[in-house]
Amino acid sequence: MTELRDGQEPAEVREDSCEFALSSVQAFLHGELPEATADEIRAHLLMCEKCMDNFDVEQMISAMVKRCWCTPAASDALRLRIAAVAHLGDTI
Q1: Is the dihedral of CA 34, 40, 45, 46 positive or negative?
Q2: pTM of the full predicted structure?
Q3: Are 70 and 77 in contact (CB under 8 A)?
Q4: Which of 28, 60, 83, 91 has the most CB atoms within 10 Å of its CB?
Q5: pLDDT per residue over 30-75, tens digit each?
């Protein structure tokens, strides 16, 4: 890997690689990419600190959303009311 000097990116890191990595962040984080593409992005992240920082932020946001996301469940009372209404509809 090439050493970075004063915020410069190594020659191997091209702008289009950064654009591709950043545009694929959600698919990468959720395991939705083919393994070869995910490997490409992993290699890019090892070379590009700027993209790694962006991925870290996206990963943290995704983890917080996942933690806060809960599947709402109907209470037993609501289930009984719905079943009663559905049963009444069958008799009409």
Answers
A1: positive
A2: 0.57
A3: no
A4: 28
A5: 999 999 999 999 999 999 999 999 999 999 998 998 888 877 788 8
Based on the structure, what is the number of domains in the chain?
Answer: 1
Domain residues for the domain of 84 are 15-91
Q: Please provide the size of the chain in residues.
A: 92
Note whether residue 86 is domain-resident: yes
In angstroms, the first-to-last Cα distance of the chain is 75
Q: Do 33 and 24 contact (CB within 8 A), yes or no?
A: yes
Contacts of 9 (CB under 8 A, 6+ apart): 48, 50
Q: How far apart are CA 35 and CA 30, in angstroms?
A: 12
